[in-house]
Specification:
It is built from 6 helices and no strands. The two termini are 29 Å apart. The protein has one domain. By secondary structure, the chain is mostly helical.
Length: 176
């Protein structure tokens, strides 16, 4: 039986897709060119991994499931819920990529500052920057990403009743 919430689902879908698009834009802005001798430094490696992951995410097409019905409200509800799940999974992945890329970008800025400083403190400062990057990356767990997205959605006053759980998102990603 139709629940009368398809308009809310459509609006929610638009919000999620807009977030996804914005995240992809911000990820693309995190790129930093590395000198050949610095190519394998960890922050640059993480940035390249993030950019490649974002490219892979953008190239993954949505494959709608065939639905039966005559365009009724229940069929529309089912399709909207599937698309919300797919777009939520994509947004989740993009947000995780963005958080990792932003951490790596901060590392590159810290590194540049260190390299412009006194040479006597460079080794210790670079070690500290590396440790900070590793700690930041370790903090970017699936649970953290979902909590961060949900907190932003709640602050924005979005309708979240059909938003999928982390387990559902994980299953969707694994199934693609």
């Amino acid at each position: 039986m139709a629940d009368g919430l398809n308009q809310a689902r459509a609006v929610r879908l638009a919000e999620i897709i807009n977030d996804y698009r914005t995240l992809l834009l911000h990820i693309s802005q995190q790129n930093v060119d590395a000198a050949p001798e610095d190519y394998w430094d960890e922050g640059f490696v993480v940035l390249r991994e993030c950019l490649a992951a974002a490219q892979g995410l953008m190239s993954a097409n949505y494959h709608p499931s065939p639905v039966s019905g005559q365009g009724n409200a229940e069929t529309e509800k089912a399709e909207l819920q599937r698309v919300i799940l797919d777009s939520s999974a994509r947004r989740f992945q993009a947000h995780k990529i963005y958080l990792r890329a932003a951490a790596a970008r901060r590392w590159t800025m810290t590194r540049a500052t260190i390299l412009n400083g006194p040479s006597s403190t460079r080794h210790a400062a670079m070690k500290g920057a590396s440790t900070s990057l590793q700690q930041e990356l370790a903090h970017i767990t699936d649970q953290h990403v979902v909590a961060d997205l949900r907190a932003a959605d709640l602050r924005a006053g979005h309708w979240l009743d059909d938003d999928p759980s982390l387990d559902t998102i994980r299953r969707w990603i694994q199934g693609r």
